[in-house]
């Protein structure tokens, strides 16, 4: 790449290599040295966005999940979306009930190895493929049963299409989880889907808000605010806390882009958004691509021979390799992989019964967000949408996005050797031992009066102090500018029309002779006294 090459150039080069025309659904993701994920911005230089040294490692990913993946125009686009969703399933992002999981895995198996053949597929053949973060023998038998009896005769394209249709109905379809905490300190995952904003806690979807109900998103430091307006209820503000300010900014930018892509009718309606109401603080960001409606209209005009798809080698599959290379077992034995998730399953029952945010009414994409109220809390057991049989804990949320297979296996092995679960909670708990956490503990010890403040109150106090400091700095800056202008008016010899008109006003002459000249003489007297004192000493 040339040093001044923009992100759009790299993205177009990649899409040309893949022979991809419906490219607006995809993006390039990278991880900075601080392990924070970013989407490559196409309007900026690639090199300037990278804080690491070349060679740069990036990943081609689905950025905006299609509202209806089965309606995509070309098979190559459906295949790439299929690979992304298969990856989501493997890393625990696409969470579903056991029956749905077995059907999805059977579709993958049919697309990868074709029809069941007793001569080629011995008993237990489905166990040689890793579809999910964890397997059970019962689930493997169910996958093999569906593959043998229900999917015979389906081509890879048909199986992938059926897989997409089934995945699109799941409540975690299109979820790219952002780990956060709510105002009570409970762990949560925030995500933006084609249908709206989603909050997941435990194995439940506790919030679902349609895009047309989201009026504003902003962030300050680690705090993310979502403003919701509904017809029958008052305006609601949801507040969440990200692990770092960089993670909060990434969450905000993802929200701005997703809302623009799915909600707007034309890209000309896109506006620059500020994270603050004041011009002198906050970040500014603008979505630079086309919106979903424009993409669908453009796709309908595609007229070309369908490009050839090389399923065995176009994009290597982590979950289940092509049968042409022979089935391979993961470097981590399945029994050990199961052990990784023991701690997650032990806490499952307590997670189901733990306190959550205000629940949603039902379990479909069209359901509206239910605001806080006594009736909502009384019916929480019925209105919370249970999305799966286990807790939502994406396995790769703590991993860099561009991770090689050998790096993934080594990381899993090292985690198992230490007995650590492969979840986002590990990273959050490890923060307690960092120097920043120790400094915070010392600060609380020095300030006993602040010991009773909770995380939410401490965040509000810090936010207030930061705002006051910014306001003070801006005020001092404005006064300094006015002082410079006053000195130019009174002491300089500039005789421009602007300055001449000001100097001739009665108010300025009165100010000059009655206030400024005495003040200047007083400063000069004091300055001479200080200089004489220094000379004497």
From TrEMBL:
GO cellular component terms, A-Z: adherens junction; cytoskeleton
Transmembrane segments: 464-490
Residue stretches making up the FERM domain: 1-266
Chief site of localization: other
InterPro entries in the record: Band_41_domain, FA, FERM/acyl-CoA-bd_prot_sf, FERM_2, FERM_central, FERM_CS, FERM_domain, FERM_N
GO biological process: actomyosin structure organization
Entry-linked Gene3D superfamilies: 1.20.80.10, Phosphatidylinositol 3-kinase Catalytic Subunit, Chain A, domain 1, Pleckstrin-homology domain (PH domain)/Phosphotyrosine-binding domain (PTB)
SMART domains, sorted: B41 (SM00295), FA (SM01195), FERM_C (SM01196)
UniProt region (Disordered), positions on chain: 357-377
Function: May be involved in regulation of cell migration. May regulate cell-matrix interactions via its interaction with ITGB5 and modifying ITGB5 cytoplasmic tail interactions such as with FERMT2 and TLN1. May regulate ROCK1 kinase activity possibly involved in regulation of actin stress fiber formation.
UniProt protein name: FERM domain-containing protein 5
